[in-house]
Design goal:
mainly alpha, 2 strands
Amino acid sequence: MPKGPYKHRVQSSPTGAICHPERCALLFILETSVMAAISLAKDRYARRHPLELARSLARLPRQPFLSMRAARMLAQYHQRGFHPNDRDTTQLIAEWRQTLFGENGELTEVLAS
């Protein structure tokens, strides 16, 4: 841990302000929620189909990116000494390489042209 006036870890928020990692994460969630609300308020389709919007919002908590597993993975980024390269992603990379560029890969035709 650094000594002196720089003893606290800080990072930049999406707006460019400097804050502690925990506060920065909460600020990010707040800013994202506000921007999503503004976006929905401006969306004509959402205003014309409120029932469909309500159903979609009701399904939101069941989405994988809002799961506890995702929260734990994201929390790792705030641990001291963490670096994304410390995670073993070789299997994930091989799987996606096959899916995208394999014999019947989705992007095989793009590479051939």
